[in-house]
Specification:
By secondary structure, this protein is mostly helical. It has helices at about 5-15, 20-25, 45-50, 55-60, 75-85, 85-95, 110-115, 120-130, 145-155, 160-180, 185-190, 195-200, 225-230, 235-240, 255-265, 265-275, 290-300, 300-310, 325-335, 340-345.
């Protein structure tokens, strides 16, 4: 359904929470991603801002995109849901995969910052349960904590809601510190202490335990991801022997251990990983669609690239920039480099 009249009818039904009309129009081909022209809001954002969780869930089932931003302020449906203050709507979007730390293009606000601004402690609690970051900053230079302090100072009403949110932030900060302190295996990996790693694994340490989300370099990483990133070959070998997930992804770049190894030129670890049972040689990261082979070539690590090619990595996959491994190699190593010819084979 593309006519302005039908768009207007569909959006009016969303504004009114008229589920029956929305259902009828969706059945007739209405686009769940319809955007309101004057506001820049999608139907999902409108329903989210109204705190209409059932309608939000219906639009999501119909294909509405929880990741897109509004065309004026750059906020997502999750931002709108947070502003509306309905915890269940926020949960519905997070269950659908909405990014808990999505940043509004104009302000740099995360949903958590908006929850504090709008003084919704219950919504704050939901976001914190989903690992919302506490150490991010706005585009105008306020850290989340400074942002909150500002709110405490300027608000004359709703102070009790802000104080309730402050208690939640304090509790989450303490829980993060405790969780980080309990990560003895990760600490040993970072320190390069192979003996301690082996002792902890023998004592039953969780081999794939993920580091808490504290807006640091290790956020959401497993010990294997860190070992491969930091060049800890024997530690990586011990972790794999203990059953570490060779295809574990980290949340920032969506990278697997192979990406971490080749990006930093660790050929020994690359050779170890390509022989690991079940390894995905061709996993494409979420930020740029690059495979480990792309990454190895991007940084000019010829040995890592050759290990991947010999292990059977695909040569035809295309990154988000439209480049195949051969294209990356040409730019990085030069058009006459022998590896470029290898990568062009059978393409």
């Amino acid at each position: 359904m593309t006519s302005p009249r039908h768009e207007k009818e569909f959006l009016a039904a969303v504004h009114q929470g008229d589920v029956a009309t929305v259902e009828r129009l969706l059945a007739r081909g209405a686009d769940a991603g319809t955007r309101e022209r004057h506001s820049g809001l999608t139907a999902l954002m409108i329903a989210a801002g109204r705190g209409d969780a059932p309608l939000v869930r219906r639009l999501l089932r119909a294909g509405a995109d929880p990741y897109t931003a509004d065309s004026r302020g750059g906020g997502t449906a999750l931002h709108k849901a947070v502003q509306g203050g309905d915890p269940e709507t926020v949960r519905a979007l997070l269950r659908a995969g909405a990014f808990v730390d999505a940043v509004a293009a104009t302000t740099g606000h995360t949903p958590l910052m908006d929850a504090l601004w709008y003084k919704w402690p219950e919504v704050t609690a939901v976001l914190l349960e989903h690992d919302a970051g506490l150490n991010l900053s706005t585009h105008y230079g306020f850290s989340m904590r400074r942002h909150f302090e500002y709110e405490l100072n300027v608000n004359t009403r709703g102070k009790e809601q802000l104080l309730a949110a402050e208690r939640l932030l304090t509790a989450r900060t303490a829980a993060d510190a405790e969780a980080a302190g309990e990560q003895r295996l990760m600490a040993s990996v970072v320190a390069g202490d192979l003996t301690a790693v082996r002792e902890l694994l023998a004592a039953g340490a969780a081999v794939d335990a993920r580091y808490p989300m504290v807006n640091g370099f290790d956020d959401g990483h497993t010990p294997l991801l860190v070992a491969c990133r930091d060049g800890r070959l024997e530690i990586a070998r011990a972790l794999l022997a203990a059953g570490a997930d060779v295809n574990a992804t980290e949340p920032t770049f969506g990278a697997v251990p192979l990406h971490k190894a080749v990006y930093n030129g660790h050929a020994g670890i690359t050779a170890l990983l390509v022989r690991a049972p079940g390894v995905d040689l061709d996993f494409q990261g979420i930020t740029n669609g690059y495979t480990p082979l792309h990454d190895a070539l991007w940084h000019g690590y010829e040995q890592c690239a050759r290990i991947l090619v010999e292990a059977g990595a695909r040569l035809d996959l295309i990154g988000h920039d439209g480049k195949r491994p051969a294209d990356v190699a040409r730019a990085s190593l030069g058009a006459e480099h022998p590896l470029v010819s290898v990568l062009n084979t059978d393409l």
